[in-house]
Amino acid sequence: MYTAYFGLSEAPFTIAPDPAYLFMSSRHKEALAHLSHGLGDSGGFVLLTGEVGTGKTTISRTVMEKLPENTQAAFILNPTLSSDELLATICDSLNIRYKKSGATLKYLTDKIQEKLLANHEQDINTLVVIDEAQHLQPEVLEQLRLLTNLETNTKKLLQVVLIGQPELQQLLQRRDLRQLAQRITARYHLLPLTLNELTEYIEHRLSVAQCQRNLFNASAIKAIHKISNGIPRVVNVLCDRALILAYGQNQSLVNKKIIYQAADEALGAPLEPRDSGSLWLKSIAIGLGVSVFMVLGIGLGIKFLTEPVSPVVTTSETLPPAKTIATNEMANGQLLESAEKITPIASTNTIKSADHQDITGALQSEHERLETADDNNDQSIANTEAESKEPLVLGHNVEQYKQQQSQSELGFELTAEDDVSPELLAAFKQAIIETDAQAKLEEKPLLESDFQPINKMPENIQNSLPALSFELHMYASDGKGWVRVNGKDFSEGQQIASGVVLQHILPQHVVLLFKEHSFTIPALTNW
């Protein structure tokens, strides 16, 4: 359809897993290395997880293609089976002859074990790969574990690769599956593509289709990454639809506007680039409204529901501002301007339900006015990024907010009504402090460049660092990753050797603390 128009030999963005279009990002290569390392061990389970469309199946097929000739593999794509059905499927995949009717679980297990022994005698490794393994029932997983019990003095006779979505990791945390979890010799969680990797991915697929020029401008690629979250399958759908739209509009280059139109048609998401301002304003208005409701609820709680006109909370200082962040110049200017029109919540004033209605009504009317303003200048977001990080303050300016924050942890003094216990008031204060502290911690993600590598540390640090053998490396973006060092599993914050603390687990490195020095060591390193 559009291939001749853009000078393509074929459509480059189909969702079919064509090996000719295989793109191995640094993350995919790392996942492949982890799986290959796990398969080179002495048996057991290997785990690969990732979100839908990140390329898990592509990785598994690449692993299958690179298996040694003396390997017999069974690839199972439909894991929604009972224990009997799964064993029968394994028998079919491994060419095991068995009676089709009346086969019991023990009968099928014996047949598989006979095959494993026969393969071992012929120096043939046996492998079972199960895709979409998050759908496996716990009893089926336990049956797989029992199959791996057959072993020699040096190796297990069956190796199992489990591939699935992040829910698979949660499934394996069940107490009744702890024995299986202990047999996992390699784990890897496949993350989506970064913006740079996504750019390379698009260029790679276009080059395979013999395209001699760029078809997507920089703003279009950024929009693709934002909408797809770096998921290759979604990228393919977006790019294919965008090329169709560009062809229909006689456009030689895909821009951001076309990408948002493609997202609307292909993903059912009514996203328009000029709506970003109004979306942010909606978030701002909602955030301010939620903050008002939180203030109303702190002093009295349930009492507010039963006595709507009674006082809710009193303050000796001006109440703290809403901590809503704006990333749009128009939002910063106009919302602050509108905030000045709202009477500050001053000292010794008492908030009542009627006041709450006035505030929310003002927010609603102001939001409706701002939403109609012209906001088609996309560049304003980037130009005012630093300014937009300042908090918007309901009834106060930013400098007043900063001064209040420097006075105390909360920035205001909370007092309770007579029927509110000191314990409840203290709990509210602690919750506010912890929430604010957690938000500050999550502002900036850790990067490997934030730390010096071990080879740049002083010689006395390098020479005195204990022997460390990193056998497994499991990174997770939520901080719940773990590594295996010197035969034991450790999480972030634990001491892995004498005087050595595992500070952080990064995608390709670990950060260690030793003798008051923090430094990185590459994953799977023997020191």
Q: Helix and strand layout, with pairings?
A:
Blueprint: H1 3-6, H2 26-39, E1 44-50, H3 56-65, E2 71-76, H4 83-93, H5 105-121, E3 125-130, H6 138-147, E4 158-164, H7 167-171, H8 178-181, E5 184-190, H9 195-208, H10 218-228, H11 232-248, H12 256-266, H13 276-300, H14 303-306, E6 314-315, E7 324-325, H15 329-340, H16 353-371, H17 379-383, H18 385-388, E8 391-392, H19 398-407, E9 414-415, H20 422-441, E10 452-453, H21 459-464, E11 470-474, E12 482-485, E13 488-491, E14 495-497, E15 500-505, E16 509-514, E17 517-522
Parallel strand pairs: 1-4, 1-5, 2-3, 3-4, 10-17
Antiparallel strand pairs: 6-9, 7-8, 11-12, 12-13, 14-15, 15-16, 16-17
Write structural notes for this entry.
The chain contains 21 helices and 17 strands. Residues 270-286 and 288-410 have low confidence and may be disordered. The protein has four domains: 24-190, Rossmann fold; 194-266, Helicase, Ruva Protein, domain 3, CATH 1.10.8; 275-441, no CATH class; 448-522, SH3 type barrels, CATH 2.30.30. It is of the alpha/beta class and 527 residues long. A five-stranded parallel beta sheet has the order 2-3-4-1-5, with helices on both faces. Strands 10-17-16-15-14 form a five-stranded mixed beta sheet, with no helix packed on it. It has helices spanning 3-6, 26-39, 56-65, 83-93, 105-121, 138-147, 167-171, 178-181, 195-208, 218-228, 232-248, 256-266, 276-300, 303-306, 329-340, 353-371, 379-383, 385-388, 398-407, 422-441, 459-464; strands spanning 44-50, 71-76, 125-130, 158-164, 184-190, 314-315, 324-325, 391-392, 414-415, 452-453, 470-474, 482-485, 488-491, 495-497, 500-505, 509-514, 517-522.
